[in-house]
From TrEMBL:
EC code(s) of this entry: 2.7.1.49, 2.7.4.7
CDD domains, per the entry: HMPP_kinase
One GO MF term attached to the UniProt entry: phosphomethylpyrimidine kinase activity
Naturally occurring in which organism (per UniProt): Thermocoleostomius sinensis A174
Taxonomy of the source species: Bacteria, Bacillati, Cyanobacteriota, Cyanophyceae, Oculatellales
Name of the protein: Bifunctional hydroxymethylpyrimidine kinase/phosphomethylpyrimidine kinase
GO biological processes: thiamine biosynthetic process
Amino acid sequence: MSVSNYLTVPVALTIAGSDSGGGAGIQADLRTFAFHKVHGTSALTCVTAQNTQGVDRVDALPAAAVIAQILAVVRDIGVQAVKTGMLLNPEIIAAVAEQAMEEHLPNLVVDPVMVSRTGSQLIADEAILALRECLIPLATILTPNRYEAQILSASEIDTLESMQAAAQRIFTLGARAVLVKGGGMPGELRGVDVWFDGNRLEVLKTATVETIHTHGTGCTLSAAITANLALGHDMFTAVKLAKSYVTSALHYSLQLGQGQGPVGHFFPLLESSQP
Ligand SMILES: Nc1ncnc2c1ncn2[C@@H]1O[C@H](COP(=O)(O)OP(=O)(O)OP(=O)(O)O)[C@@H](O)[C@H]1O
Ligand SMILES: Cc1ncc(CO)c(N)n1
């Protein structure tokens, strides 16, 4: 007989949708938490029938089921950081905001999933309004992509200066910090993100990785920020570490399916397994 070493690890919670293709949503989040040696817990909001080519169908869970999952986790296991992904409808958004107001969701990273990187709207207009009014003001870090930032700032974003202006404008919605992501920008701006926390305006820049397999980069980035917050890093350090992780995962993106494959979340293992 041998005795288990009881280990304690930080815990993160993702409140997000399922991606049947495994590249984005809950599946990307849990893989990212595991990579960071953070125990991943989840509250599922919806089930998407999705692959590398697009989303075929979305079925929402009842808001009460989302709350029950959150409470089951926070009352027993406890969490150090939380992220939200695809929340889909105003009922789920209001329920999650209520949990945040009850202080059940510490270090809350809100990835305001509204529009895909290719520009197609993923949630209804009422849900966008609910995110803006109920949940975004409660966020620790908000991570809109180019198109989401355009909606939230009511401005066109096509240059670095317009990303910076949008980050500052979106900050006024109430999040403690905003990261405008550049994956949907043209050319060399694809690897450029802009940070604003009311004080520091920073440009986080990596070289653009030439790949079409970018499915789930946004989910992966916000999950990595969440994992780093759970590990005890400050907000800006958590973001810098997360950006570096996504860049490495993009360097080992996976050619799967007929469309945009996912990033390689376990790149050190993948690197050594290739012939
Ligand atoms: N080709 C690329 N090269 C380098 N970095 C990239 C590239 N594409 C995206 N990124 C980075 O990936 C992160 C996610 O940004 P992105 O704008 O793709 O989010 P998103 O649109 O929410 O993603 P998705 O909807 O595909 O999950 C950002 O840090 C961005 O800079
Ligand atoms: C479930 C889910 N969440 C988020 C995104 C955005 O990448 C997606 N495509 N699918």
